[in-house]
Write a structure and sequence with these properties.
Elements: E1 5-10, H1 18-31, E2 36-41, H2 46-50, H3 63-71, E3 82-83, E4 88-91, H4 96-103, H5 113-122, E5 127-132, E6 153-156
Parallel strand pairs: 1-5, 1-6, 2-4, 2-5
Antiparallel strand pairs: 3-4
Helix pairs in contact: 3-5
Amino acid sequence: MENCKVIAITNQKGGVGKTTTTVNLGVGLANTGNKVVLIDADPQGSLTVSLGVKNPDELDVSLSSLMQSVIEDEQPPGNAIIAHNEGVDLLPSNIELSGMETGLFNVMSREYVLKSCIEGLKKYYDYILIDCMPSLGMIDTGRGSFRRSEAGLWLPALPDPR
């Protein structure tokens, strides 16, 4: 879509509601008539599981596969997106993403790998929501590929202060 908005839900701590926020915001936006894709950028695959994928590690295609196709300058796999009955699409994740993170260390222009993946999706969606992993690793830091994805809005999920 012409005015696609990229929103990253992020925090370096786990268990603060990043996945829940991503799902609820995504479904809410879809219910108002928007085309929405949710990107699971966490190798634990919690977003993927919460949307009904029983075993994400058995998926043939995931965010990691898409990023690998960018690194190798190959045609991206065409079956990476999973449609969900709540009206959102999902780019799933699995444990392969943790290997991708360490593999990015030696990749030229590694900070643009995720950006390239997202650029290919922008023409199909009004919103791209990214459920980030709880860390400050290679994928989600300023030097890594995540911040360069040009998320227009970062929503830090803050833990309950109690």
